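ok so i was messing around last nite and threw this chain in just to see what happens. nothing serious, just curious
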Amino acid sequence: MRFTLFKKEDDNKMSHESFTPQHRAIGIISTLSVSILLVAYAITTILGFLSLKSPMDPIGNPYFTIMELLIILIALLLTISMIAVHAYASSEVKVYSLIALVFMIILTGITSSVHFVILSVSHPIEASGLTCAPFLFSFKWPSVVYALDILAWDWFFAISMLFAAPVFKGNRLETAVRVFMFISGILSLAGLIGVPLANMQVRNIGIIGYALVSIVVFILLGIVFGRTGCVNGDPE
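result:
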């Protein structure tokens, strides 16, 4: 029994030997930060909706600006989190974690660009009276920034989650990470159905995947990274 236990611990050390204390620290901070900021984003969104006189009105400031800034910060932390996932992955599944990391980098680039443009130049351009401005900058379908953001979250985020899921296997905690990653990815992909239907209510299925289920995913990831330090003999 003791031999089997020690063998499992040795195998675990070998499988995560590239996961350094630096990866562990960055992974814990980034994943838990993503979870906290996603909760903050959800609360801000709810407060924004409650401030509206009509459900058809767009969310105004200060809620809108806060939401935009949160998205840019969340996107950055998502990429950092996926770097930690890639470091954590054992050699036989690193191809999956690398693909997941690449797709998350693409997501970060697209959504950060979209929301920075909206924050910095959309309002001055709209105020100038440009007739096509709503088709470029609004979050009412159809518009260019809306389509790009859907591409980022319902496609690239979804694929990143689905490729990262196989990295986690073995104990119950990692199984939970894998299951919630699959759920998050599949729901995010399902949001794409709203595009050909031109129905953004259907597209909201994707929001459940990347904005709600993902909160659980990144909390669990933070716990996994924290426990890995104990297995590998790193100090608490």
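not much to say yet. Residues 24 and 227 are 9 Å apart (CA to CA).
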